[in-house]
Amino acid sequence: MTHQIIIVLILTFLINLITTLSYSVRIVGIRTGRIAVSFALFNILVLISRTAYGLQAPLLAKTVENIIYSGQGANLLDFRLIILSCSVATIVGGFLIPTFQRILSIAVEKFSIYKSVPNLLMHSFSKSGIVSIKDNLVVPNPKNIRSITLDKDFPWKVFLMNVIAVAIITVGVLSSLYASYLNPDFRTTASSLSSVINGVSTILMFIFIDPYLSIMTDDMVLGKTKESLFRKYIVYMVIARLIGTILAQMIFIPASEFIAWIAGII
What we know:
By secondary structure, this protein is mainly alpha-helical. About 85% of the residues lie in helices and about 0% in strands. The protein has eleven helices and no strands. Helix 1 packs antiparallel against helix 3 and helix 4 packs across helix 5.
């Protein structure tokens, strides 16, 4: 395993960890009454995620280029491990959601005092800030898992759409780059197709998943939906995300072969 792959594993873990934690931001906004500030502070982590995503593809592309030029076979295990890191990050993120909710809630309240992100960060690394973080480390409530029921109220449509969208976006860049190895004559075309593939998953997210969560958020604000129900749906989304990363392992090779074929005929 090259040092590029190790860095990619770390970056991929970070990206998926932040994405999983994003499910809890809506609850923080409602609890604190500061939805806009909650998303603004969380966008700092999103910025880190986007930076990591921007570094991920070039590092993987460099690895594929080295494989092609050396004439060696691609190490499929490296790609499998990268997808596995998505699953691990989702599990870790799911367990960290309760802790993250409490810490972000404190950050939102403190932001009204400091009114500056740098000052807020300075406070976070102060003695009192570190103690506050330690005091809010919690373990997820097992009741949230036991409350899962596959009854008529289970959001099958949103759940399945989330599984599909996560599976597609997980293999989007990876399959495009592996397709570059399978069809090296059109590797530039193959790698460029990743944006098209990720676009499909983004459309699914924006059409089916985000509007559904937004409606539930509004219902919570209006008192039509209990917070306990919303927390249960977050558990559903995390489980769907985990299943999506597992499904990504299964579709990785077929997706790579399909992209390599498309790159050769367009």
